[in-house]
Amino acid sequence: MPNKILRRNNVKILGKGSRTVVFAHGFGCDQNMWRFVMPAFEDEFRIVLFDYVGAGKSDISAYDPQRYASLEGYFCDVLEILRALDLHDVIFVGHSVSAMIGILASIAEPARFSHLVMVGPSPCYIDSEPDYKGGFKRNDIEELLDLMDKNYLGWASFLAPVVMQNSETPEHASELEASFCSTDPVTAKAFAKATFLSDYRNVLGEVSVPSLILQCSEDAIAPDEVGDYMHLNIAGSVLKRMKATGHCPHVSHPAETISLIKKYLFRAVDE
Amino acid sequence: MSDSENPHHLGGILDEAPCGFLRFQDDGTVLRSNTTLQIMLGFAAEEIEGKPISTLLPPAAQVFFQTHLFPTLRMHGAVKELYLSLRDKSGASKQVLVNAVRHDRDGEVLNDCIIVEIVERARFEEALLQAKREAELANELKEKTLSELNIAMESLARAKEEADASSRAKDDFLAALSHELRTPLTPVLLTASILAEDKSLAPELHQQMLMMKRNIELEVALIDDLLDVNRIRHGKLILQKLPIDLHEVLRQTVEIVSSDCEEKNISLTLDLVATGHYVKGDSARLGQVIWNLVKNAIKFTPKDGAIVISTENHADDRITVSVSDTGVGIPGQFLSSIFNRFEQGRVTGQRRFGGLGLGLSISKAIVTAHKGEIWAESDGEGCGSKFLFSLDLIDQPRKKSPGKRRRSVNTESTRILLVEDHETTRLVVSRKLVELGHEVTCAGTIKEAEAAFEAGDFDLLVSDIGLPDGDGLDLMKTIRMSSDIPAIALSGYGMGDDIQRFEEAGFTTNLVKPIQLDQLLIKISEHCGSGSAD
Question: Do the Cβ atoms of B72 and A159 come within 8 Å?
Answer without folding.
Answer: yes
